[in-house]
Amino acid sequence: MPRHLALHCDPDSQQQDVNSALTVLLLRANWRKFRYITSMGERMSNAKLEVLTPHNSQIIFIDQQPQMAFGVQSIDRQVLKNNTVALAKAAKVFNIPTIITTVETESFSGHTYPELLDVFPGQDILERSSMNSWDDQKVRDALAANGKKKVVVSGLWTEVCNNSFALCAMLEGDYEIYMVADASGGTTKEAHDYAMQRMIQAGVVPVTWQQVMLEWQRDWANRDTYDAVMNIAKEHSGAYGIGVDYAYTMVHKAPSRQKSEHRTLAPVHAPVR
Fold first, then answer.
1. Marked catalytic residue, from 69, 90, 126, 161
2. Which of 13, 97, 99, 186 would give a disulfide with 74, using CB separation of 3.0 to 4.6 Å?
3. What architecture is the 57-215 domain classified under in CATH?
4. pTM of this prediction?
């Protein structure tokens, strides 16, 4: 029998081939559908995709003390202090549950920055002996009492107190950690950077202080906090704050915000020889 005729003489074999092809196509389609549903479920269940809000987060300031700041080399120390106080003011504006903890205040580290403490009058300071805040029961109790799983962290040093707290709080307390990189500091740039990398690999979310504040604000139509946020920006946000002042006074013709009165004297040209 000629070969081209033989190819058409076995309908059962042809049907099996068609069924096999359809099965493969069906399996591929189902696999794609399964992967899509699985990935959607993973995204929907990933709490780190949720933005920070005033209702889902708390904040802890760890060892923002003079002796600890003396050792910081990863960021300018005045910038560090500016960012830390700005973050504290933002937390106050949005009524974020706040913890301040210190280590060996009298024997080594000194007292927390007055500018930070003045943001939270009457706030308890949780003193520790351990470098790891998680090792102190008062800290654990305060975190639990605040009832928020998203914990924003600003502390010194990144590679010691921040790192150990973050890892233990995630492992043992099932907290989500948001590490404020520019309101924390390490003994060298490498110490800070590699500690941040280690924590990120473990699941910590890196953020910056202004990012956190604006995430809490979210919408400029939220007028209850708008003015306070703008005041923090003007005082602490560098070029952004200067730009806000300029826009207010030069574009919108708002009065300048200084508290004292000043006269502007018109130019008087002196004789030129």
1. 161
2. 186
3. 3-Layer(aba) Sandwich (3.40)
4. 0.82
CA distance linking residue 36 with residue 13, whole number of Å: 35
From residue 29, give the alpha-carbon distance in Å to each of 16, 18, 236, 245. Answer: 20, 16, 54, 58
Q: Where are the domains of the chain?
A: 57-215, 219-251
Model confidence pLDDT, tens digit, residues 213-244: 999 999 999 999 999 999 999 999 999 999 99
Buried b (16+ CB within 10 A) or exposed e, 46-62: eeeeeebebeebbbbbb
Tokens representing 165 are: 């707290």
Which residues is 150 bridged to in the sheet? 57, 176
Type of residue at 121: P
Alpha carbon of residue 202 to chain centroid: 15
Angle at 43 between CA 149 and CA 56, to 5 degrees: 25
Beta bridge partners of 59: 98, 152
Query: Rounded distance, CA 44 to CA 38, Å?
Result: 10
